[in-house]
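May I ask for a single protein's sequence together with how it folds?
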Amino acid sequence: MDLIIAVSIILFIFILFYLARYYNVFTVLQLNCERAWGDIDVQLQRRYDLISRLVEIVRDFAGHEHKTLTNVVEARSRAISAKKKKNRPKKRKPRDCWRGR
């Protein structure tokens, strides 16, 4: 009878250590999971901040591009109109060509 009680106590202690070990393992896994979700939240917040900055940069660049394009179009139209307004040399008459005038 004493042997059965001793084996039962040893088995009970073994089961207790087994349960305590797995409880600790599951607690560590739960903490790791919570930490991972926290990291995901941090990354999402960082992405949100970066996207808002990117939108602002693109908006500023679009304004700069609009100004540049407007300046190029205006310069081109001025160049074309200046070409049209230039005094062109008079056309020579056919009889002036052979005299070298």
About this structure: The chain has two helices and no strands. The mean pLDDT is 86.
